[in-house]
Specification:
134 residues; alpha/beta; Alpha/beta knot; 5-stranded mixed β-sheet; two-stranded antiparallel ribbon; tRNA_m1G_MeTrfase_euk; MT_TRM10-typ
Length: 134
């Protein structure tokens, strides 16, 4: 489990984040959340849920967070990016943990979602910034 607190401190542990932090301080990042992450709160701990698997299990991280009564949020990909035209008709808001980390750390440094999403969301995901559409 990887969790971020005050965005620059990264720790790994076998302990549950539920035992380490107050429930109201935890935000589980999942692409299936209805809540959009608008800003990073230094008083929150962001859990980067991830699966090491070849297939994507839809809504598994959202379900896990809901079962634990933990707040959820998703990156604002739909709000700042547009779908690309591609031959495979493939689009995914599911990112690898390192991509989510790149987005969060860039946002923290720049306070710009477009810059942050450009840093972490590859065009292969089927989304680009509007100015990249030709």
């Amino acid at each position: 489990l990887l969790f971020l607190s005050s965005i620059f401190q990264m720790d790994t542990t076998q302990e549950s984040y539920l035992d380490l932090f107050p429930l109201d301080a935890i935000v589980y990042l999942t692409p299936d959340s209805e809540n959009v992450l608008e800003d990073i709160d230094r008083n929150k701990v962001y859990v980067l849920g991830g699966l090491v698997d070849e297939s994507i299990h839809k809504k598994l991280t959202l379900q896990r967070a809901q079962e634990q009564s933990v707040q959820t949020a998703r990156l604002p990909i739909r709000e700042y990016m547009v779908k690309t035209v591609n031959t495979k008709n493939y689009r995914s808001e599911t990112l690898a943990i390192n991509q989510v980390f790149d987005v969060l750390s860039t946002y923290y440094d720049t306070r710009s979602w477009p810059a942050a999403l450009k840093a972490g969301v590859s065009s292969g995901k089927g989304y680009v910034l509007p100015d990249a559409v030709k």
